[in-house]
Amino acid sequence: MITKAFWLFLQTLPTVVAAKLSVTPPIADDYFIIDYVLADKENTEDISFVVYNDRGNKLLTKNPLTSANQYLIECKNWQEGLYYCRKLVNGQQTEELQFVIDRTKSYAVVQTALAVYPNPANDYFIVQIGDAYLVNASIEVLDTKGVLVQQISVNKDQNQLLINTATWQSGVYILNLKTNKEFVASFKIIIE
To answer: How far, in Å, CA of 59 to CA of 23, rounded?
Structure first.
């Protein structure tokens, strides 16, 4: 069940992401919905939506029949954990959204603590931190080898940060949110 505070937090996220591709609810249990609207120049024959688990295993592929639609996906037999819904255009990934299957709601803290967009990013991305996690907060950015790329101290009145990535190499990075030096949440971002 999504709390009112979490719903209000989701409303602060940019609508441009939801206009193209969304997965709801972001914390699913037995079902989730892939909702999409294709861009004017996109052809349905060139598009596919693929869902992967956090180990990179492809679980399903959906090919759109129209320029806007929804797919209701049953996931009762899927393991709890982090999942990725990727939009592919001619086999190349153009968007990725993360969602969680969580029947015990233990992953809820990740969703309310940290949001990162756009993802994938080019020259910058925005980190949004839930108000409850702003006390003595810091963000570590690591590359896939675990090398610290950047460490950012967060002011208690600063729940949104713009991170410049213009000089970063293309690839996958991990953001770790800590409060009082204790790990709170982690998020994967792709820099193109």
So the answer is: 15
Output the DSSP codes for 23-44. EESSEESSEEEEEEE--TT--G
Rounded CA separation 133/187 (Å): 15
> How many other CB atoms sit within 10 Å of the CB of residue 111?
21
Rounded CA gap, 81 and 34, in Å?
Answer: 17
pLDDT digits (tens, 9 = 90+) for 147-160: 889 998 888 777 78
CATH number of the 112-191 domain: 2.60.40.3080
Strands 27-28 and 92-101: parallel
Which residue ranges make up each domain of the chain?
4-101, 112-191
Sheet holding 27-28, edge to edge: 27-28, 92-101, 81-89, 47-53, 58-62
Assign 108 a pLDDT band (cuts: 50, 70, 90).
Answer: very low
Edge-to-edge strand list for the sheet holding 114-117: 114-117, 124-129, 160-164
Whether the CB-CB separation of 81 and 53 falls below 8 Å is answered with yes
Question: Does the domain spanning 4-101 belong to CATH 2.60.40.1930?
Answer: yes
Name which of 17-26, 49-58, 98-107 the model is least confident about: 17-26
Using 50, 70 and 90 to split pLDDT, how confident is the model at 17?
A: very low
